[in-house]
Write a structure and sequence with these properties.
By secondary structure, the chain is α+β, with helices and mostly antiparallel strands. The chain has 4 helices and 5 strands; from the N terminus they run H-H-E-E-E-E-H-E-H.
Length: 116
C-alpha cells in the first residue's frame, strides 16, 4: 500500500505530540484521536494542526474558505467548536498559520514557519 509508512509516521508523530502535553488519565485516547483527526484530513478539509496544548484541532475548509476548530477531548472530536471565516486565498491562510501558536503543525505547513 503506497504511502502507508508516511501515514503511520504522521499518526505516530501526532499521537506523540498529544501525549507530550496532555495529562495521562484525562480520558483521552491519543491514538484514537490521532487516527480520527488524520481521517478527517480530506480533499475539502485539511488538518492544519493542534493548538492550545493539543486541546483544539484546526482545519482549513476549502468549501467555506474558513478555519474550523474541533475540540480534542476525551469525547468525540467530531463536534465543530468555532470557525474563522474569510480565509479566501493562500496568502490569508499562510498569514493566519504564521500568526498562530502551534502545539503540533501538519508537515505540509511546517515550511511556512521555517521560511522566516
Amino acid at each position: 500500500m503506497p504511502g502507508y509508512g508516511y501515514e503511520r509516521q504522521l499518526e505516530t508523530d501526532l499521537e506523540s505530540a498529544i501525549l507530550a502535553v496532555r495529562q495521562e488519565g484525562d480520558g483521552l485516547d491519543a491514538g484514537r484521536v490521532s487516527a480520527y483527526l488524520l481521517g478527517e484530513d480530506q480533499i475539502n478539509r485539511y488538518l492544519i494542526g493542534l493548538q492550545n496544548d493539543c486541546t483544539r484541532a484546526s482545519f482549513y475548509c476549502t468549501a467555506t474558505r474558513s478555519i474550523a476548530y474541533k475540540p480534542v477531548t476525551g469525547g468525540s472530536p467530531s463536534e465543530l467548536a468555532d470557525t474563522v471565516p474569510g480565509i479566501t486565498n493562500r496568502r490569508q491562510l499562510r498569514d493566519w498559520i504564521v500568526e498562530q501558536d502551534w502545539s503540533w503543525l501538519h508537515p505540509r505547513y511546517r515550511w511556512l514557519l521555517e521560511a522566516d
